[in-house]
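Sample pair:
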Amino acid sequence: MDTRAGFVALIGEPNAGKSTLLNAMVGAKVSIVTHKVQTTRARIRGIAIEGPAQIVFVDTPGLFRPRRRLDRAMVAAAWGGAADADIVVLLVEAHRGLTDGVRAILDGLRERAQGARVALAINKIDRVKAPALLGLSAELNAAFPFERTFMISAAKGHGVADLKAWLGAELPAGPWLYPEDQIADLPLRMIAAEITREKLTLRLHEEIPYQLTVETERWEDRKDGSVRIDQVIYVARDGHRGIVLGRGGETAKAVGQAARAEIAAFLGRPVHLFLTVKVRPDWLEEPERYSEMGLDFRDGG
């Protein structure tokens, strides 16, 4: 059987559903999913099999107007993922339509991804009526020469199989890039840190989630088959440390329990998770923090 393999970049505005679609395509949770925007930082590669094709998904950070160094590094990572991909899939929320943000992304595709193959996926189709969907599809295709248009609901699975089948058929012929049983190319240490960061993001509110990061400091495989994981939650201010810990440490304890359960399910083995909260006022300006997130510090300059 002739095999195919290649990279597919999922791009769109923050909260367009890229992480949800990635997880649906891969069939496992490999990317952080929350109700908050801008939660995906690193270019997470999820790996899906479609017949003889291996599809390597690049889940890029949402494209938005950057304000801080971290924002600029995330946007640079997103465009880097699009430029390097064999196929780009732009996700647009059906109920939001052709926003100024989507127009800016289309401009970016013309400037930064010239010659790229671009497909359109209108997501969250369950939120609007069919006539409005058809009108939006016509409007978007008039604004940009998409190769194909797909109507999907990443959360409910509608249309996902059709999109996946098309991607698998359109990738270039060649050997698979990863082992058959691999579903992501992030190190387990980073996946574990991302899971904990997701639990923090879901638990906390306002700006704090964007001013914290989680790093796996120690990973010890034990003889009984379990693993001990020590993680550090870095926050920018002393007041944030108290919020992350919670009264009597109850917030950090709840986050730790939720993260431990999910990491254990992901690894398929018992996990002993230990969390420490540290204040590092300048972590957003430290190159090593960016490297840990898979971002380039220089891109934020």
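Residues 250-267 form the longest helix (18 residues).
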